[in-house]
Amino acid sequence: MSVLLLWLAVAFVYIVGAAAPVGSRWRLIIVSAILIAIACAAPFLLPVYRISQLARFWALGIALLGLNIVSGYGGQLSLGQGAFMLMGAYTFAVLTDRVEQLGQVDSHPWPFWAALVMAGLVACAAGVVLGALALRWRGVFLALGTFSAAIALPHILLRYDNFSGGARGLRFGATPPPPFLRGLLTQHEWIYFLGLVSFLVTFYLCWNLVRGPWGKGLVGTRDSEVAARAIGIDVTRVKVEAFALSAALGGIAGGLYVIPLRFVMHETIEPLESIYLFLALVVGGLGNLGAAIPAAALLTYLPTDLVRVVGQMPGLGVELVSRAPGLIQGALVILVLLLMPEGVMPTLQRLQAQYVAISLHRLPTAILPIRLLSAFIRKRMALANGPSLGRDVHEEVRDV
Amino acid sequence: MGALAQGLTDIGHLFLTPKPWEDWALFGEQIARGVAIGSAYALLALAIVLVFRSSELLNFAQGEWGMFTTFVAWSLIVAGVNLGVSFLAATALGAALAAVMFRLIVEKVKETLPLSRAAVTIAFFLIFNSAAVWIYARGQLPKYFPSPFGLESVDFGPFTLSRHELGTLLVSVGVMVLLYWFFTRTKIGLAMRASAINPYASRLMGINVGQMLTLGWALGGALGSAAAFLVAPLTGLFTAFMFPILIYAFAGAVVGGIINPPGAVLGGILIGIGENLLGTYTPSWLGSEMKLPLILLTIMAVLLVRPTGLFGQAEGRQA
What we know:
The structure holds two protein chains of two kinds.
Chain A: H1 2-16, H2 24-45, H3 48-73, H4 81-96, H5 112-134, H6 139-159, H7 161-164, E1 170-171, H8 187-211, H9 213-223, H10 225-230, H11 235-258, E2 263-264, H12 271-284, H13 292-311, H14 318-323, H15 325-339, H16 344-357, H17 368-385, H18 393-399
Antiparallel strand pairs in A: 1-2
Chain B: H1 2-15, H2 24-55, H3 62-78, H4 83-104, H5 116-136, E1 153-155, E2 160-162, H6 163-185, H7 187-197, H8 199-204, H9 209-235, H10 242-255, H11 261-281, H12 291-305
C-alpha cells in the first residue's frame, strides 16, 4: 500500500511540479530535488522485500536507459539487451566471490565496484562486436540477429559449465556496505542506494549525452543516414558507439540486478526478458529518456503486484492470477497501447503541459498551495504594475 | 602415411561424430527427415511472411495461436472426434482467431512508435500462452498427441522415414501448391498481393484493402495452426512446444528474405535440414545443447553475407 502512495506522490510531484510558478530552470531543479528526496526516503518507509524489489527496479532502469540510447535515439531495434545483462551478471558473480562453487572459493575476490566496472567492460566488448555485425542489418533482420544472441547465450553458459556453473548457477557472497556506511545503513538499504546512485549518475550522463553533439548525431543518423553523412557525421562510428554504450549499461545493470539475489544462473535473465525490456520501453515511450522509469516500473510490478491487484477484482479468481499471470500482463499492455499510443512518458508530459496551460483557478483543490501562491504573486504584480484586469492567471505564471 | 591418415581421422573425430562419410544412409535419412520437419517450419514461416507482407510486422503470437488451437484439437480428439475433422477445426479456429484479433485490436493500435503493433503481438503471445496454461496445463504434460498418419516407419531402401514425417511433407507440399494457385490464379489472391505491394493503387482499383489485410492474417493463423498440428506428434503437446518452432520459422522467413514466400519455404526447409544434421553430427565437445545456438550463429553468418536474406531484395525497397 505504502508503495502505491509513494508512486502516487512521485506522479503528483512530476505533473503538478510543472505548474510551479518559477522559471523553467528552477522548476527542473526543484522537481528533481523533490523526486530524489522521495527516492531517498523510500527505503526507510517500506518493508524489506519492497526495498530489494526497488533495488532491482533501479538496475532495470539502467538497462532500459542503455536500450533507449540504441533503440530509441539510435533507431536500431535491439532485442539483445537481456544477453548483455546476463553477461554482466555472470562477470560480476565470477569476479566477486564463489561460495562453494566447484570446490573452490576465490581467495581474492574483487571489490564490488571493480566487478561492476568489469561487468560493464565485458558487456561493452560484446556490444562492440554485435554493433559491428549489426551495421549490416536493418529492421527485422537486426531484430533476429540481436535476438539470436539473446537466445544463444544461455545455451552457451549451460554448455560451458567450468566457469558458469552450468545448470546449478553461481552463488556469491553478499555485497556489504563500505566501512564508512556501516552502521548507518542496513544491507538492504545499502544495496538500494547503490542502485539509486548508479541510476541517477547514469541518467545524468545519458541526459547530457543525448542533448550534446553526440546525441544529436545519433538522432540524425536515425532520422536520415544520408543527411547525417552529408553533414559530416561518422554514421558507422556513431552506431557502433551507441551499441557499445547500451551494452555497457546493460552489463552494469546485470551486475546490479543480481547483487540482491546473490545468485545467478542461465535462467536469471531469460531470452524473452530481452523482448520484455523492449516491450516495456515501447510502453514507456521510445526516444524519451524518462521512459526508463515507467518501463522499469512495468517490468517490476506487472508480474507481481499489478497482477495481484487485478486478480482481486470481482469475477477474477486467485487461481487465474497464480496460474495465468500472462493473461493479465498482456491485457494491461494492450490497454496501455490503446489508450496511450505514444507511450506513458509522452502522455505524462502532455498532462504536465496541460497543467501549465489551463488556467490554474479551474484546478481542483489538490493544488491549493500553488493557487494561493500564484494569487499572491498576482497581487504583488498588480501592485507593482498597476491594474492588470483581464489577464489570465496562466499568462502571469508564464511571465514569471 | 599411416600416422597422417590416423591424424586426419582424429581431426575428423574432433569435429564430427559420427562421420557422415562412413554412413551415407544415415546422412541421407537425416536430410530427408530435415526436409519433412522443415516443411512444417516452412508453413509457419509462410504464415509469418504473409502477415509481414500485409502489415509489415513480425507476429510473435503466431506460434502460440498454433499451440492454443492444437490444444483445442487435442480436447476434440479426446472427446472422440475424427483426427481429420479436428485438424480442419483447428485451422479454422486459427484463422478466425487471427482475423478477430487483427480486426479488434491490432488494427486499432496506432503505429505512432515503430513496433508498437509488434508489441501488441508480444502481448498476445503472453495472453495465449497463459490461457493455455490456465485451461489445459492440468495433469501430465506433455500430452500425447496422436499422429493422423501413424508413427510406423516406411522403408525407402537406403533409409527409413516415419509415416508421420512423410504425411507432414505431403500435407505441407499440398498446402503450398494450394497457396501458389490461390495467389497466382484467383482474383482474391491477386487482390491480396496487390494490396500488399501498393495499398493506394489497390484502393483506387476498388480493392477493399482492409478486408485483404484481415484475410492475410486469417491465412497466417490457419497456416500456423496447421504447422502446430503437424509438429505436435513429434514434440508432444505442452504449452511451450511452439516457441523453438517459432524461432526456427522466424529464422527461415528471415533467411528467405521475409517478403518472399518461396524463399520462406526454402528457408524453413534449410533450417529443418540444418537442425537435423546438427542434432546428429554435433561433436561431443560441443554437445547437443549447442544445436540452437549453432543454428542461430549460422543464420547470423548468412545475414552477414546477405543482409536481406538469401532470397531477399536488394537494399532500398524496404527493410
